[in-house]
Write a structure and sequence with these properties.
The complex is a heterodimer. By secondary structure, chain A is of the alpha/beta class. Helices cover about 30% and strands about 20% of the residues of chain A. Chain A has one domain: TIM Barrel (Alpha-Beta Barrel), CATH 3.20.20. In chain A, a hairpin with a 4-residue loop joins strand 12 and strand 13. In chain A, helix 2 packs parallel to helix 3 and helix 3 runs parallel beside helix 4. The longest helix of chain A has 16 residues. Chain A starts with 7 loop residues before the first strand and ends in a 15-residue tail after the last helix. Chain B is α/β, with parallel strands linked by helices. Chain B has five helices and 16 strands. In chain B, the strands form three sheets. In chain B, strands 4-3-7-1-2-6-5 form a seven-stranded antiparallel β-sheet. In chain B, strand 8, helix 2 and strand 9 form a beta-alpha-beta unit. The model of chain B has no long low-confidence stretch (mean pLDDT about 95). Classes of the chains: A alpha/beta, B alpha/beta. Chains A and B meet through strand 5, strand 6 and helix 7 of A and loops of B.
């Protein structure tokens, strides 16, 4: 449709454009197949998978906040076996990349799930969730303790036969340090940011609004934080970055790309506008046309340093 | 035909204090809804409120869809401010529908719950025995449009301004003593629907409830709106999405603790 190219390469994986869905906001793809042509996406990133199905947290699980929302879904998912049997046949029917987000509650479980997914036909890359803030159990330290993060990433790296993306938590003192740890442990790419932990209070009942008390903040409210962190990580590691956090428009996506992201993921925007991803792709084409840029890679990391 | 479309406001007016009737015309051909289905409506694009809000449709005609709603929070206040000609983004129709009754049936509406049941009353006219409860006279909305569609109507109010001063489940319970063979369709507040579900369970009547929860996506992706439902595989209950697996559930399967808003 256009003379310019939106193709990007992330850790050896070629994407027709840099726009993908953020895990947890797009189900297993089929939920939105009625609303947009999945073939147009750079990649579909599916809801986080674990070895066993997970029921998730009690309700209320979500609350809207100014320009954002808090969620504490608690990683509800159908489990890796049902995903491979029931959801992958559908996803294999599309000309897009399938990236499987996954997590575990022990290093052994991470390794097992990564092995199963990366051996599955049609799974093009894995995204490791080490940063979901919803779970009170010990595993949430994976993403916030450099030593533990290095250990789990290097263990998964040994069994993962496709590109391995590590999704970083913003709820740390230095996300650059965590990105370097992931890179040193063998991550092929990093994605950031996961949600920022937050809380909302019902002033009448004086209770937290969410049953889980704390939740993860997403939406336009967190975009400046995410752009800043992408820029910091871009200056700290050599591996590619997938940027996310409050991307609603092509202009938002461009901020991330210019700051150093090679891919961008659209999350909360899907809820508000089911065709947000394709609208953003169209907007990227328009921007490249208007700015006379032939290759989107010329924009990536082009932020002026002076 | 896409279930995501832009629409224009063709009519928007107060019904009673605090309630409005909004009529939209889709800008592109839209799918016709079935009774009990809902739409996600977005009144503005300012990011605050950020999310669309779910509304059962009230009625649908050739190229219009109407919504009867209560002004209640940030989302409905933004919606209430829309003038004729305003554009808004819509997703729908969404969710399942009321299984249509084959003969007479009992409809139980609590307050604004009449908005969802109205589509059923219109689809199966003249067969409903309507039990209709509200806080007061002001909140028994549009009786001139409701009453022609039903066989009988019993009203209750919390303040006694119309009908019996009681919860609507009280006359329903009395009626079920002799009519437990009729299916019951209920929509209202969560405590009201639980009370109706309880009297139906006691009487042995089949009961369908249309649940209301906070939603983000409306299409089963975010898993924010779940409710615990008993299934054959999970007799202790498992989470189901109100937006996709509901909003209409067999009341005997609903685990009410933690359900709804």
């Amino acid at each position: 449709m256009s003379k310019h190219s939106l193709t990007v390469n992330i850790a050896g994986l070629e994407l027709k454009n840099p726009v993908m869905t953020a895990s947890g906001t797009f189900g297993y793809g089929e939920e939105y197949a009625d609303f947009l042509d999945l073939n147009r996406l750079g990649a579909v990133v599916v809801k986080g998978l674990s070895r066993q199905p997970k029921e998730g947290n009690p309700v209320p699980r979500i609350v809207e906040t100014p320009a954002g929302m808090l969620n504490a879904i608690g990683l509800q998912n159908i489990g890796v076996k049902r995903f491979i049997a029931e959801k992958m046949p559908f996803l294999r029917g599309f000309d897009t990349r399938v990236i499987c987000n996954f997590f575990g509650d022990s290093v052994g479980e991470y390794v097992e799930v990564a092995g199963m997914l990366s051996a599955t036909d049609g799974v093009h890359a894995l995204e490791m969730n080490v940063s979901c803030p919803n779970k009170q159990a010990g595993w949430c330290v994976f993403g916030t303790d450099p030593k533990v993060l290095g250990e789990v990433v290097s263990s998964v790296r040994k069994v993962c036969t496709v590109p391995l993306i590590v999704k970083l938590s913003p709820n740390v003192t230095s996300i650059s340090q965590m990105a370097r740890v992931a890179e040193d442990a063998g991550a092929d790419a990093v994605s950031l940011i996961n949600t920022i932990t937050g809380m909302a209070v019902d002033i009448k009942t004086r209770r937290p609004v969410l049953a889980n008390r704390i939740g993860g903040l997403s939406g336009p409210a967190i975009k400046p934080v995410a752009v800043r962190m992408v820029w910091e990580v871009f200056n700290a590691v050599k591996i590619p970055i997938i940027g996310m956090g409050g991307i609603f428009t092509a202009e938002d996506a461009l901020e991330f790309l210019i700051a150093g992201a090679r891919g961008v993921a659209v999350g909360t925007a899907n809820f508000v506008n089911p065709s947000a991803t394709v609208d953003i792709i169209d907007g990227l084409h328009r921007f490249l046309d208007a700015e006379n840029i032939n290759d989107i890679n010329d924009l990536i990391g082009s932020l002026h340093r002076s | 035909m896409s279930r995501h479309f832009a629409a224009s406001v063709v009519e928007h007016h107060d019904v009673n204090a605090g309630f409005r009737l909004l009529t939209l015309s889709p800008d592109t051909p839209a799918l016709p809804p079935e009774p009990g289905q809902f739409y996600m409506l977005q009144a503005n694009t300012t990011f605050d409120p950020l999310l669309k809000r779910p509304f059962s449709f009230f009625s649908a005609a050739d190229n219009t869809i109407s919504f009867l709603y209560r002004i209640r929070g940030k989302g409905t206040r933004a919606l209430a401010a829309l003038d004729t000609g305003a554009k808004l983004s819509v997703i729908g129709p969404l969710g399942n529908a009321y299984p249509l009754p084959e003969g007479d049936y009992i409809a139980v509406a609590g307050g604004i719950g009449i908005a969802s049941l109205y589509s059923l009353l219109g689809a199966v006219p003249g067969r409903a025995l309507l039990f209709w409860g509200a806080r007061n006279r002001n909140e028994l909305l549009m009786p001139e449009r409701i009453e022609p569609l039903v066989k009988t109507v019993v009203m209750t109010t919390d303040d006694g301004s119309v009908g019996e001063q009681a919860l609507v489940s009280v006359p329903v319970k009395r009626f079920l003593a002799d009519h437990a063979h009729l299916p019951v369709y209920a929509c209202g507040s969560t405590p009201m629907m639980k009370a109706v579900a309880d009297v139906c369970a006691e009487a042995g009547a089949r009961c369908f409830v249309s649940l209301e929860t906070y939603m983000a996506c409306g299409v089963g992706a975010c898993l924010g709106c779940v409710v615990k439902i008993r299934t054959q595989e999970h007799p202790q209950g498992t989470f189901r999405s109100v937006c996709k697996d509901g909003p209409v559930f067999d009341a005997s399967a609903v685990i009410w603790e933690g359900a709804g808003e």
